[in-house]
Write a structure and sequence with these properties.
- The chain is mainly alpha-helical and about 120 residues long.
- It has one domain.
- It has 4 helices and no strands.
- Helix 1 packs antiparallel against helix 2.
- It is globular, with a radius of gyration of 17 Å.
Length: about 120
């Protein structure tokens, strides 16, 4: 299970749906009190509710029918120090694993660069 923590628009459909499903599946570990130590750097337990909602919005935008709300479990039994995903590492990993995600990431990067240039041109 991994949370990519990048803009959901950059994820291919496989990774979008996969991350959404894994967030739901991982909730069970918190409810049952299972160890998550091996997931340091891969998940952000405190961000799962917000991340789920971001993924659901993108799924709906792509025409999927999202019908599975996420209820944030009680995380008070866990030491969540250092449970942060490094977005730069996620981008590198996705680019090397998935041609569709790589294409999406490059496309959004190009669009952002063009928009930035347009804004600069307007200001000058």
């Amino acid at each position: 299970m991994r949370m990519w923590m990048i803009d959901p628009k950059c994820l291919c459909t496989k990774h979008l749906i996969g991350e959404h499903g894994e967030i739901h599946k991982h909730r069970h570990n918190f409810v049952k009190g299972h160890s998550i130590e091996g997931r340091r750097g891969q998940i952000e337990p405190e961000s799962m509710g917000k991340r789920h909602d971001e993924l659901a919005v993108e799924m709906t935008r792509r025409g999927f029918s999202h019908q599975s709300p996420y209820v944030q479990p009680d995380l008070s039994a866990y030491d969540l120090t250092d449970f942060k995903v490094t977005v730069d590492k996620s981008v590198i990993d996705l680019k090397s694993r998935c041609a569709a995600c790589c294409e999406n990431l490059e496309s959004i990067k190009s669009t952002a660069k063009s928009s930035s240039q347009e804004i600069k041109a307007t200001v000058v």
